[in-house]
Amino acid sequence: MAYGAGVIAAQRFGAAEIIDPRPFAVGSITTTYEKYPTTGNVLPAMGYGAQQMEELAETINRCNAELVLAATPIDLRRVIKVKLPMERVRYELQVIGTPTLADLLQAKFG
């Protein structure tokens, strides 16, 4: 995804800047950006095995952000340790128009 709930929250609450994490990426994080070049200025959502968690923490620690917004389904603060403050962003899906997700799935697989 080129952006997600973290970007929306940052914009909504007046972040002065959204830092592009790509120059700070290491290991499989770098590989993911290469495989999915349209990911955008966000850290990619991955499976996050043990090695990937270490690389995610290192990537975050290499940037000079004032705050990290974690918009993953899990609470990253419980599974990685970073030197930067991290806040969790939560979200819920609200269907506001058509086609709905159910409509699209029905059309594709129905």
What features would you describe in this structure?
The protein is mainly α and 110 residues long. The chain has one domain. Helices cover 35% and strands 5% of the residues. The protein is built from 4 helices and 2 strands. It has a two-stranded parallel sheet. It is globular.
H-E string: HHHEEH
Question: Could you list the spans in which at least 5 consecutive residues all have pLDDT below 50?
Answer: none
Helix content: 25-40%
Biggest beta-sheet profile: 2 strands, parallel
Q: Into which percentage range does the β-strand content fall?
A: 5-15%
Distance linking N and C termini: 26 Å
Summarize this, please?
The protein is mainly alpha-helical. It has four helices and two strands; from the N terminus they run H-H-H-E-E-H.
What features would you highlight for this structure?
110 residues, mainly alpha, two-stranded parallel ribbon, 5% strand, globular
Question: What's the helix and strand layout?
Answer:
Layout: H1 5-12, H2 27-35, H3 50-62, E1 68-70, E2 86-88, H4 101-109
Parallel strand pairs: 1-2
